Design the sequence.
């Protein structure tokens, strides 16, 4: 294993010399996918597919290949996409060399900022309907791109090194990739760690402000490989570890309670973003809101909103009103909060089972326990946000797609239970606390499994 890790370190360091070229290629490819098809034939007929229509091909490439592919890649190579290929982060870093040296406000450094960015953009993407409308996708990416560049220009580098404030604090998928990377196999670690708490450093080598010698977790590491020194005794090195090992030993890897809020909220939000178009519950909710608005003479709710906030497409025959915006947003938030409350309850009772064994506070114990639900939570996010990938599978293999999804669910459930079992064994709990811990784990896993089933059968209702 050491020989393999040494060879990987050398290969990645060699590849890192060409990252600028990789990023330029990705920038050109992204711009081409978003802009060029808009000047070509508009999809209007059922026989048009991604293979005979440029706009449909772009939508397929973005939402069936790029987005779910990025999430899945993190399980193998960590956030290598961010460090080697991402055009948004790269552009933000490039302009940071020219940017002002404004000090980062405290609210921007808060761990919840990235999670809030994900929640806002996920809802926004649904009200714009970016998966089915390339014009809307261009609007979304254009605004996010402008924000990334603005971030680089405002919070520039002071010592000539590139800075990625956007990637660490504001990137909408940064939270997802951060949690996924805790499950991933590839990790960068300090050869001579300093010990103590994981630090934050504004003027160091790391573009995402990691204090390298105290690095414990992988969530902020974008695998740019600038700190990896294969031939030196100091510096950083690459290790290949077991999938989920960071979560199984989360005490040693800087657990963060704010990151737990993302794990609790994001699965419900992502799943709701997938199911709302076909959910009878959403239809009933929208109708109830519409009747209420009419009864109170809130006619503004029946007017269309700005095109940068909600979908306005003559081709799709969609003209979202403020009523649609409110219905979609409130439905997604409600589902996210309901799921989160149940998962928080599981984490609370799981934390109570550690009360006599672990000397930390209730919040610290909840943080440790909440991470044990991460594998299934990530599957829910993947299925919710990667719907186009699984729709493509359905076109290729037909109804067998459902079997594949169910197999994925069984694998994720089994892995989650196996990983949690390894974590609980460390504490050697007495029978009653151990029973409470397992009830909490299984209840959380079952909820996430049911939520994932909802994505597989989105029109399901109990009524």
Sequence:
């Amino acid at each position: 294993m050491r020989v393999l890790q040494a060879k990987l370190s050398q290969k990645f360091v060699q590849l890192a010399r060409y990252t600028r070229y990789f990023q330029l290629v990705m920038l050109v490819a992204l711009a081409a996918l978003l802009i060029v098809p808009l000047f070509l034939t508009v999809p209007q007929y059922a026989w048009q597919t991604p293979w005979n229509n440029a706009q449909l091909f772009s939508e397929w490439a973005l939402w069936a290949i790029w987005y779910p592919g990025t999430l899945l890649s993190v399980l193998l190579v960590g956030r290598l996409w961010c460090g080697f290929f991402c055009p948004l982060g790269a552009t933000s870093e490039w302009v940071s060399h020219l940017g002002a040296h404004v000090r980062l406000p405290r609210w921007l450094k808060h761990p919840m900022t990235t999670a809030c960015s994900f929640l806002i953009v996920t809802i926004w993407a649904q009200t714009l309907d970016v998966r089915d409308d390339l014009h809307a996708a261009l609007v979304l990416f254009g605004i996010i791109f402008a924000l990334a560049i603005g971030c680089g220009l405002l919070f520039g580098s002071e010592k000539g090194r590139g800075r990625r404030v956007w990637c660490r604090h504001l990137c909408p998928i940064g939270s997802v990739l951060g949690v996924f990377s805790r499950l991933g196999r590839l990790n960068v670690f300090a050869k001579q760690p300093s010990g103590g708490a994981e630090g934050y450093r504004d003027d160091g080598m790391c573009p995402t402000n990691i204090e390298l010698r105290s690095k414990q977790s992988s969530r902020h590491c974008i695998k740019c490989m600038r700190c990896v020194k294969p031939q030196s005794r100091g510096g950083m090195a690459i290790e290949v570890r077991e999938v989920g090992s960071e979560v199984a030993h989360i005490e040693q890897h800087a657990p963060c309670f704010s990151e737990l809020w993302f794990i609790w909220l994001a699965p419900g939000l992502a799943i709701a973003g997938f199911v709302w178009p076909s959910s009878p519950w959403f239809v009933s909710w929208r109708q109830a809101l519409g009747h209420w608005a009419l009864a109170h003479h809130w006619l503004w709710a029946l007017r269309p909103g700005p095109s940068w906030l909600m979908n306005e497409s003559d081709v799709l025959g969609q003209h979202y009103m403020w009523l649609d915006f409110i219905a979609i947003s409130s439905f997604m938030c409600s589902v996210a909060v309901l799921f989160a409350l149940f998962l928080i309850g599981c984490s609370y009772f799981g934390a109570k089972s550690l009360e006599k064994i672990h000397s930390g506070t209730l919040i610290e114990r909840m943080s440790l326990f909440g991470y044990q639900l991460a594998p299934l939570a990530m599957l829910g996010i993947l299925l919710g946000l990667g719907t186009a990938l699984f729709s493509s599978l359905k076109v290729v293999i037909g109804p067998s797609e459902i079997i594949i999804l169910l197999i994925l669910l069984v694998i994720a459930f089994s892995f989650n239970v196996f990983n949690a079992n390894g974590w609980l064994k460390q504490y050697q709990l007495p029978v009653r606390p151990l029973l409470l811990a397992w009830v909490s784990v299984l209840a959380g896993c079952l909820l996430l499994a049911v939520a994932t089933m909802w994505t597989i059968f989105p029109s399901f209702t109990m009524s």
Q: What stands out?
A: DSSP finds 19 helices and four strands in the chain. The chain has two domains: 2-250, 254-456. The longest strand covers residues 186-190. The two ends are 55 Å apart (CA to CA).
